[in-house]
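During the second half of the funding period, the structural biology subgroup turned its attention to how the target accommodates small molecules. The most pressing case was magnesium ion, which had performed well in the primary screen but for which no bound structure existed. We therefore specified the complex as follows and requested a full 3D prediction, including the ligand pose.
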Amino acid sequence: MAPAADGAPAAAAADAADARPRRRGALIVFEGLDRCGKTTQSARLLADLRARGHDAELWRFPERDPARAATGPLIDAYLKKKAAPDGGAAGGGPGDAAAQAAALAAAASMDDAAAHLLFSANRWERRPALLSALRAGVTVVADRYAHSGVAYSAAKRRPGMDRGWCAAPDSGLPAPDVVVFLDAGGGGALAARGGYGEERYEVPAFQAEVARQFDALLRPSTPGAAGGEGEGEGEVGGRVRCARVDARGTVDEVAAAVAAAVAPALEEARAGAPVRRLWDGEPLLTEEGEEQGGAAK
Ligand code: FDM
Ligand code: MG
């Protein structure tokens, strides 16, 4: 007899814990500068959600694992500014390895716009699995998502790469039910704390510019706000519920603030609010889990 490996018992337990019909999961995104505590707080929220009977998973973007996203290794090479640990590449014969190493070396010095589109493609690669998870009642806690995509690329201040341009390729991805922006007081405070690694963006002056970009992106942070009248470029994030959480407390204090910030979004998802899409906030999934209006906008 085959073991019962279909996950049904766990699902039944989650339903029993909720004592309510199974609803869709929520997409909860953590954003912020490097070293602001996103990884600690996203793991903490995951544990808290599970302890309360939620079916929940921790995701991160960029997804660097090639088993989940073909763009992962290219983005990893781009961020590390080098091809691979030993110049080697996994799998295949010597010819394949050389070709893969060449691809990663090229990725390490990729054009800014191409790199930006790769980060977006990385989210698009994960879109089917993300929608499946939400449909199945799994709450996804994501360590970075589309707001990082816009803030980090726009911070380069390249001609033609303003926030509107940077936001466009993510149009049609599932919108977060809430973005928790962990605010550690701007790049300066974090730089003083030290401990940056050696990846491409882990440079104090650049982090300060990323902080300015996040500010512009998150400014109209009213839940459900329809964006300002002005429709300025800073409005791209205006229709996404956003909570700014002071990240300068203890881990427990910040976790409590995060829990309060995500509660309304969890409740709305549970009550059947549709999954919406970036960036226009139109419904993407019906309550029955059907996709509306095609994949892209
Ligand atoms: N980053 C992350 C981007 O530049 N664009 C994106 O779309 C995303 C999701 O990648 F510096 C940057 C932000 C950060 C780097 O992320 C890797 P982690 O979380 O620091 O590993
Ligand atoms: Mg980092």
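Two results from this model are relevant to the next phase. Residues 1-8, 221-234 have pLDDT under 50 and may be disordered. The pocket of FDM (ligand 1) is lined by residues 34, 61-62, 79, 119, 143-144, 148-149, 152, 201 (CB under 6 Å).
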